[in-house]
């Protein structure tokens, strides 16, 4: 049992306490590597771990909850406590975190409600989620003998809204479900976000998010505190020690020595949570997306973040720099040697079998038939790929075709031959089917959801509904009678490799190989166009030849002694006969800069 108080300082069991925290997202790291990452945080001299809790991972379908395997939050908390780490938990409905839809489940888009608001329907949805989540974590609060110091109500709400009734509703849901530890909000440190995103008037603790200029940013927070008569400790809840990356853009880096000095500047005045300490990986289809004007810019699979631990979980030059700074200025925090993992030897795998997507649709997809094409949300398949199929009677030798209002990326096939690929703003441009008048053309459209935005006003935009949302026009009329194939990548044991492979079509490529030892590895996807990879059934994420990342990380927990299978789903018809296992990530120089 212990006591954590927020007065003019943080107090732990009656003694002043400086929080040295690092962010580790359990849902971005394989369960078998949680101990490795937490141990390395403790070895740095830190005393606390922070994690978000992603609603959409725990309730991907309405009313269906998952808290097992890599989503076993309780086990993560228990491991932290065993290592002597305290926990800051951020179970807010919205997390941002460069995560698909900011952690909001996509099924909310089909509900009659307004997200992140005091709309009773939204609050009710959160309440049902909290019934399952908070009943699991309440027992781990410090007052109950656990390691949890405090929990977050909402995340950067001042950069989104000013609905204080909503913030109070979330607070009340938490309190009603047994949360007695201190609660907090985190926002940008300037007055506009602090005024609109906090509950300072209700004595809810306020933290700030920034990545530099700590003295200035803390001064803004102190000024806001003084307006409300508060004398509170200063804490940067997200000190951005690196940054995330998007497709087609250079890798973002930060100098280790400069970072260590910036961290010292924070610690001279307050407490810190390094965002990220270990970034990990956006496994599956869970990468987020940035909103820029009319474009949505999806982020890459790797969430390396240029953090203190690399994607694999090993210490970087930043780790060493911060560790040296702490040893110099804060020797009272004990440090020890970190853990380091190794990789498999490099090797080349030969393709074992290959087969076309189109020949396997009936066996690996859930099929619905409708008059008009439906969106991904309408067919309850909000992530990944949805293939639409219909038959077109040609009224002329050349038929005008337009895809009306679809997201995010559409590949159009006429009689299984690629007609065009359209992406975001290109969608809706005229295309032309060529054939003979009065004959029938088979039309297939493979649509990919490349990630919903995770921040800002576009959370409410219609662009977050994926797939074909209005229809497909031939000449001037909407085409009727569609089949929708929801590609189910949990059913790939049904793939029939006797089905013919066709060049220049989406296809599956199988690589079978034997291991006598199991370690981490990276797949160098050079030579493949665009798609996803599954390793022994584990969806390790997306690849795209545009870069900047060309490899995919495979944690050792996804491999096994003996026979292993890699399945590459490639959509562009760009592939090669071999696949390389390598010991470090590979990159593409997308703008002539040194990576």
Distance between the termini: 49 Å
Any idea of the CATH topology of the largest domain? Answer: TIM Barrel
The total tally of domains equals 3
CATH architectural name of the largest domain: Alpha-Beta Barrel
Radius of gyration: 25 Å
The helix content is 10-25%
The main sheet comes to: 8 strands, parallel, barrel
CATH H-level superfamily title of the largest domain: Glycosidases
List the main descriptive attributes of the protein structure presented here.
single chain; 595 residues; alpha+beta; TIM Barrel; Jelly Rolls; 3 domains; eight-stranded parallel β-barrel; six-stranded antiparallel beta sheet; 32 strands; EC 3.2.1.23; hydrolase; glycosidase; beta-galactosidase activity
Quick synopsis:
By secondary structure, this protein is α+β, with helices and mostly antiparallel strands. It has three domains: 4-329, Alpha-Beta Barrel (TIM Barrel), CATH 3.20.20.80; 347-352 and 506-582, Sandwich (Jelly Rolls); 358-487, Galactose-binding domain-like (Jelly Rolls, Sandwich), CATH 2.60.120. Helix content is 18%, strand content 31%.
Topology (elements, then pairings):
Elements (H helix, E strand, L loop, with lengths): L3 E3 L3 E3 L2 E2 L3 E5 L9 H11 L3 E5 L2 H4 L14 H10 L3 E5 L29 H18 L10 E8 L8 H13 L6 E5 L3 H7 L7 E6 L3 H14 L7 E6 L15 H14 L1 E8 L10 E4 L2 E4 L18 H13 L17 E4 L2 E4 L4 H4 E6 L13 E10 L4 E10 L1 E6 L2 E7 L7 E4 L5 E10 L17 E8 L2 E2 L3 E6 L19 E9 L5 E4 L5 E6 L2 E7 L6 E4 L7 E9 L7 E5 L13
Parallel strand pairs: 4-5, 4-11, 5-6, 6-7, 7-8, 8-9, 9-10, 10-11
Antiparallel strand pairs: 1-2, 2-3, 12-13, 14-32, 15-26, 16-25, 17-22, 17-25, 18-21, 18-23, 19-20, 19-22, 23-24, 26-31, 27-30, 27-32, 28-29, 28-31
Helix pairs in contact: 4-5, 8-9
